[in-house]
Give the backbone structure.
Amino acid sequence: MPIFVFRMDSKNYFINHLAQTSPFPIGIEVQSAEGNWITDTSGKRYLDFISGVGVTNMGHRHPKVVEAIHAQAEKYLHVMVYGEFIQQPLHDLAEELQHILPKYLDNYYFVNSGAEATEAALKLAKRVTGRSELVAMKGAYHGNTHGALSVSANEKKKYRFRPLLPDVRFLKYNSIPDLDQITERTAGVILESVQGDAGVIVPSTEYMQALAAKCKSVGALLMVDEIQCGMGRTGKPFAFSHFGIEPDVIIMGKALGGGLPIGAIAAPKKHMELFSHDPILGHITTFGGNPLICASAAAFLKAMRTEIDWNEVEEKSELITQFLNHEAISEVRKIGLMYAADLQSFDEVKWLFDFCLERGLITFWFLSTDYAFRLAPPLTVTKEEIEWTGKIIREGLDQILSRRT
């Protein structure tokens, strides 16, 4: 005899039984996603102009990624905790990273998220140096686990969860004089190559090179967070490549998984092998290096490496810059396909978001920079899609101007 289970309608179920992260979730009921578009259960299509917040850099369900997932699912899923069995998908992902990372970063630790990768990097800095002080940047965002939150800057997001990690110092981002505060007590310096949550703050090459030199001179590890700004987002595979520096640790996440959850750190083997002894299991994970997700990530990286024309990415970037040249916007900050555009208030940002969403365009905002709206389309966005987006946003900006008067 069939069993019938009563369930509320989807929206009420979502609100009442799935933990919420804000009082105003977007609430699109997703039916499918393909390429640069998401379709809801009513058949309405939305152009995803934020890439699932920096995740779908090659679009939704890239054919090569889906093919790799299917192929691996036919073989095996989880078989053992990380680091014990030899599994080809992990090798494939490591080989893809070797194509796009400097050769000295020859060892990789795969975990489950960007925040978890941040935790691993902080531990590695302490293990390598034997020191305790961590230096982070004002405006930083590295994740929401305890360690990652400890080196993130927004006090409004932190104060309910104190005490956090001790011995953390915050410096002004992109300030060369502040680098004097990095000393031989410092285990490591962590910073985003391009600050995301602060509203797309791009550092100067002079600053980044001075920071790298300072870390080297005092023996502190330089850890660059590429979780949001990596994987092609800035017009290069990694954002740190714009500045001519050689970091000690690269922190990855978001887009790396091709749409599935993953995090990773890359470092020289001489550093990473310290996790294996004194004590053994210095960093462990059950599901890190999951074969299905590593297969997806390797396929994503190969597609990005072989299919993306970086000159074309810059052309697309210029098209977006042109339609953001509007009287309602006080400042635009951008690099590659990573944008922040300043309005006067969060109310205006939210109004523009709602305006765009009603017309089938997904934009977003930032956690900490509440007066700026976010644009970060997939690298695969077409010029026609950019032009369509520009018309909608400019119409909304025109209305914002009229609302101000």
